UniProtKB/TrEMBL annotation:
One of its GO terms (molecular function) is D-mannose binding. The keyword Membrane applies. Residues 1-18 form the signal peptide. This is Lectin family integral membrane. InterPro entries: ConA-like_dom_sf, Intracellular_Lectin-GPT, Lectin_leg. Keywords: Membrane, Signal, Transmembrane, Transmembrane helix. Its main location: membrane. It is a single-pass type I membrane protein.
Amino acid sequence: MRLSTSLSALGLVACALAHPDVTTTDANGIRSIPLRTHSLSAPYLDSDMQSRWFDFGGNTIVRADQYIRLTSDRPSQEGWLFSRVPLTATNWEIEVEFKIHGLGNLHGDGFAIWLTKQRATPGPVFGSTDRFEGLGIFFDTYKNNRPGTVFPYVMAMVGDGSKSYDKSNDGKENEFMGCSARGIRGASVPTKAKLTYFQDKSLRLELQYKSEDSWELCFETSEPPTIPSVAYLGFSAETGELSDNHDIISVSTKNLYDTKGRDSTMNKPGNKGASKGSERYSKKKEGGSWSWFFFKMLMFFMVMGGAYVGFTAWRAQKGRSHRF
């Protein structure tokens, strides 16, 4: 029994060593660092049936082994999911796997991705509050009044805290950028959205819905909007007379750094504070990496020692049973 327990613990440590949070650098010199505080994956909830980093409400249902369902395929529902802490990274990438599906031939209304000062506030804009301050990305599946536009339609809106969403015209007067995405509802492949932001440099939205590992560019701009320095990451959805299931499958958020010195905020002339901050961050990460390495090694040797003690006891017990 001791041997089994010790070897099980050893297996858990081996898994932990084999699956750390991975920091990577791509061919363009962009380093990405995972942000646990703004990422989600099954089973979504901790042992106390709460999420450490996210709040949810409205008609949201958590199916721990499959999805977070913002709305079910029923009329007049709304649900939301918001981070508990703001996303303060200067540059970031958010990749969301989602699923929009239902039984009816007619369906609606859609869901939204938010980066706003407001959080966890139900309202008429895809289940969240109107007159928001920040960025909203709307996945609109029902066409109200927008001639010449193919639906589903994905659009970005930049809110200033006073501007109201033009719901009757599907946000036509509010659109910052957008694209048609026919086939994103009920797709045969995992549907994903990847939003990449570099402050004062670029904003890009890519979608996966035609084939797996194939990204379609929805929009990209070299003049991105200013996102509030304190902005919460959120998701919301709503149904009206028509309905759909709106599921969030996973969220992966990463902090981005340009290692080749092209970061528009870290390398602006005279922006010494940002440079010093990045130096402090690098030193902290380096020290933290060594500390974590020694901690893992210590755990490894402790588990190995426990396994040896358990194995020795087992052999002694076996020897005594043989003598009888």
